[in-house]
Amino acid sequence: MNTDQARFNMIEQQIRPWEVLDPAVLSLLARVRREDFVPPAARALAFFDTEIPLAEGGSDGRIMLSPKVEARLLQNLLLSRTNRVLEIGAGSGFMAALLAHQARQVLSLEIDPQLAETAQRNLKRAGLANAQVRHADGSSGCPAEAPFDAIVLSGSVAEVPQSLLDQLAPGGRLVAIVGELPVMRALRLTQVGASQFTRTELFDTAAPRLLGFAEPTGFRF
């Protein structure tokens, strides 16, 4: 496989048509080697428009998001080089790698100990010293190290916990995929005052659940 051509096709045929037009994001996607963060057995899928299973069997929801979803989440975080970022759900570490190129410091929480170890190893191999992966249940965030300028959830949740919103700095942004199948919605929540947030609906999509977050009871009245 010609990886340079496959990467170019991914950007031009999947990502750019999906309204990812920020030149900095597109340039970053051309430089960061996505294939280095894909499990060896799935390397041929690195540039496909698909989610990639990260766990044996691939049935437990631990995946890499599709390239276009990763790119659009990144674009909508509106990062600057002074930002501190919290990621929930490190996976293989690819999103943390992208974040590390755009932010000052990245902390990524991963509930699966093996994935956390793999992600940290991938980031080290990529030479990214400003990104750290920690084995932890990310559903409560990391209040001890808050506030964060941006928080991104690399998977879906039924709703965003208030405890995560409380960890945003003034003007901070949280981007997450929220809702129920068959269609979920990516949202950006921006802190505009004490316990005040603006909500921006970004795009419709679907993604596997992040582990550890509460689910609705299912009762309807």
Let me know the number of strands: 9
The poorly predicted ranges are: none
Name the helicity range.
25-40%
Structural class: alpha/beta
Q: Any idea what the CATH superfamily is called?
A: Vaccinia Virus protein VP39
Helix run count: 6
For the structure shown, list the relevant keywords.
seven-stranded mixed β-sheet, 29% strand
Overview of this structure, please?
This protein has 221 residues and is α/β, with parallel strands linked by helices. The chain has one domain (3-205): Vaccinia Virus protein VP39 (Rossmann fold, 3-Layer(aba) Sandwich), CATH 3.40.50. 27% of the residues lie in helices and 29% in strands. It has 6 helices and 9 strands, in the order ααββαβαβαββαβββ. The strands form 2 sheets. The protein has a 7-stranded mixed β-sheet. Strands 1-2 form a two-stranded antiparallel ribbon. Helix 1 (3-15) packs across helix 3. The radius of gyration is 16 Å and the shape is globular. The N and C termini lie far apart (55 Å).
At a glance:
The protein has 221 residues and is an alpha/beta fold. It contains six helices and nine strands; from the N terminus they run ααββαβαβαββαβββ.
